[in-house]
Design goal:
heterodimer; A: alpha+beta; MutS, DNA mismatch repair protein, domain I; Dna Ligase, domain 1; 13 helices; 17 strands; 38% helix; B: 176 residues; alpha+beta; Umud Fragment, subunit A; seven-stranded antiparallel sheet; 2 helices; 7 strands; DNA repair protein (chain B); Peptidase_S24_S26A/B/C (chain B); LexA-like (chain B); LexA/Signal_pep-like_sf (chain B); DNA_polymerase-Y (chain A)
Chain lengths: 429, 176
Amino acid sequence: MFALVDVNSMYVSCERSFNPRLKGVPVVALGNNDHCVIARSDEAKKLGIKMGAARFQIQDLIDQHNVQLCSSNFALYGDMSARFQSLMYNFVEDVEPYSIDEVFLKVDGSYDTLYPSYQGLGESIRNTVMQWLRLPVCIGFAPTKTLAKVANRIAKKNPELEGICVLTNQAEVDTALEQFEIEDLWGVGYRYAKWLKNNGITNARQLRNAEIEWIRKKMTVQGVRLVYELRGYPARLLEDNPLPKRTISVAPSFGKLIPDLTNITDALTTHLARCCEKLRKQNSIARHLTIYLHTNRNRKTPGRPDLASKQYSASRTVKLPFHSNNLIDFLPYGISALQSIYQFGYPYQKVGIILNDIVPEDNRQAGVFADAPTPEQLELGHVIDGLNRRFGRDAVYVASQRKDREWEMVQGHLSQRYTTNWNELLVAY
Amino acid sequence: MIDTIDPIPPGNIWLVDPEKRLPIPLYSSTVQAGFPNPAETHIETRLNLQDLCVQHPDATYFVRAAGESMIDDDIFPGSILVVDSAIPIRTGSIVVAWVNGDCCVKRFVRVGKMITLFPSNPAFTPIYVHIGVDQFDTLGVVIHVVSKPKKWNQDQLNTAVEHVRTRRRKQHVREL
């Protein structure tokens, strides 16, 4: 048996966890410089606020219903997520963190002695997460991961189940799949959903009964796995050691439109430092560096709302002569790439970085003609990471970076980092 | 041209990099000779405050105290409270709780369905929580308090210095 435990509207729940004033009122979390909605409470969903809606579109609703706004506090969400995942080991041994708010558990018969039923285990998990972290969760139990996803969704959609749905007997699975829309299924994208519907398959039960060979031809082996999973044969197993990422990308928008190269270079340096940090975290090194730059596509010409403003976007990929995870190695290439694509006279919205050709650190080959980084230089990066972890982000940075950042993200409604910063603790009177 | 009787195969020729020289210890493993260090079996890991204060790392939060309402329980303004959410709250526990959204640290007392939050400083009044009317949420039980020792003010310092001086003078007089 598998279980999927999922935190209900994670970001909003984390904010509520440390601020009960937000309970029972509509709350939205804003991302991307406070421009768009990235999470909503149930109350906000009922008001008709859509995911990804721009702030100006919902400004009337915010004023009318006094919707509470939170800038995304990723330090808090990340720490609460880590606590949530680690807490699961108190119940089972096999845990797969799937995303920031979801974990898969492998629930075997050996737990029967402690918890007489899956329902009982589910209630215990739910109550513990509520007491320890003050986060509401939904849990779906089923024989396969895909069915656990289905069960979790049913638990979420039906409040009378109190957050727990166990799919064990065949009749229950049948009715559940019958009512399950094909496009809501895990692993069925927009295109496959369209194709399946054209072929008369609209719910999950019909897909389960589809012929394997026919599915294999169109949906490849992934589709076959999906059908087997729906039939109750586990084809996706628990992955407790996630593979290192093969691409790393960082591209937050500027807080306002930035026209000049100096500020863009400064932003690039900071983003590149983040990328290198991510690389080192998974002990990898990369070789291909892509820099891209673009203006705001939705912007209109000032004074002429009917006319789109002039747009510019460009990108450039550089292949380094060696693999590295050190900012000092990437930076000169990054800056020359940026200089080559930069055009004067446009208000830019974003500079982005993509790192490719990522291999493990110990696969490193010393260059013959190029001065590849020595093991000491690679170690230096880890030392810098250690210092930044201990003394706060940007304790050590490259001298060319500026302290006063014009381009930085706007976060007007940021809550405190209650669990990760000594200066921002909860205060009790 | 150098003639050699036994030519060295090219595979055996390489450039030695003095930078890469590794110091190799004389003995790679120690040989037990004589008396072993009697303290060796008694070496333990160094004490860590985290182990003392935190039982459930996933459920422990640090909270900063403010105000003087709990001063008789040694909770001073600026003290760091170690709060454990996994411990069940009983009557008499010091808790961190929210009453209508305001966060406070008080002693928790439940009689029947009535919840009252008691301060330990007699200058403050208890908070009566009306279930169903007031919004009441708890963070957890305070299991440790971390505070810096109090600093003496100038008067206290002067008194102490004066005390030492007078004592010395008396001693001096006695010796005479």
